[in-house]
Amino acid sequence: MFTVLGQRTRHRCDGGSRRSFLKAGSLGLAGLTLADVLRAEQVSGGGASQKAVINIHLDGGPPQMDLIDPKPEAPSEYRSPFSSIPTAIPGFNVTELLPKVASIANELVFLRSLVGAAAKHDAFQCQSGFNEKSLAAVGGRPALGCVVNHLLGSAQDRAPTFVDLMQGRPLARNSARPGFLGPAFGSFRPDISHLFERELEAGMKVELARLGAGHTTKLSLMRELSVGRLDDRLSLLGGLDRTRRAIDHNGHMDALDTFTQQAYRILTSGEFAAAMDLEKEDPKMLDRYTAPVSSSNPGTKFYTSEGPQAGRKLLLARRLIEAGVRCVSVSISDFDTHSNNNSRMRQLGPIVDHALHALITDLRDRGMLDNVTVLAWGEFGRTPKINPEGGRDHWPRVAMGIMAGGGMPGGVVLGATDRYAGEATERPIHYQDVIATLYHQLGIDSATTLTDPTGRPQFLVDQGTPIAELV
Length: 471
What we know:
By secondary structure, the protein is of the alpha/beta class. It has 13 helices and 18 strands.
């Protein structure tokens, strides 16, 4: 493994895509190295836009009626127990779990009529717009961040194009996978478990173990290898390359030098590692992203759910965007409320409320909001009717989302549902429409095609278009 000098924290990234960046023994360029990845990213040319996306997966499927689509007139067996409160958008209410979101609703977009959910319990559809089985025969569809890596990554970048910070199901199920693009365009996947605990379900642990040690790869600098020793190794490699270049008539060695040098810059500049280090953040900012705990009715924390510090994941995402990352995926768990929905939402709702408010206002205060598109959504909605265990089950017929930034208009409410929040009755929006909108926000035409391994062109989305009200 290759380690970056002086970092006490160990960071990991996707082993499938970054299996051996640079091996200290040889700088070895054996197998798939960071230089290989950078070389592949350069194939498409790269773009000049610095637009970025923070894609927040509400892991498990958030209950729409308990958050942004209250139905106070519904029968008791359907009705959310949480009060309906007004927002900064006249005539639009959310539930009492989202008072901070309500206060900045005029800066947000609320999606109440998401349709087309694949009913699969991971984040792949929220990463790509597609069912996981789509194009499985040729490697599967790539996640949006991997496409961005392919189309916008540049050999001059000093930070990864796509960073996956997701935990829980999205990690165990590799939801941010590159599909038919191949591992060179996969995400950087730092291990943040030392910062944010997310206990996996027993079945998830089995799935994660099945992926093997290659699912993550250390991206920290070992103390045993100093920058000076690395310089010596690069000098030696450079000498060998000059000898090989003397007999190279096609310029291949010059290209190899370019990508190897960029790999060296990223891994030794410290910029990415610094962005990952929350200890470098102002304590006041850490507090800003940490949700307070209610002393009167804190709700029930399920064993797979996260606590008040989960909002700091969004702070980490902001820091990575500042460091030059184009796409960050992050998760907040656990909305799989098959039992005890109300008490669990009493605990989780305020965490999401606080985190979204902190991120949006922070981006706004820093002058970043027009360039960064924020999206929070889940893989499906929850059943309108409460089950005998007091929970809400999977409901792919309609789901919810919240968006902001990227130059989109604020104060927009799209879609409506029936009296139970169970069916879309106005302006249905497909998951692919949202993904197409994210591509548009990044300056990528969603009608762009990618060539799959059989040589056939594949559209980034095959039935979605950018949401007209937002572009």
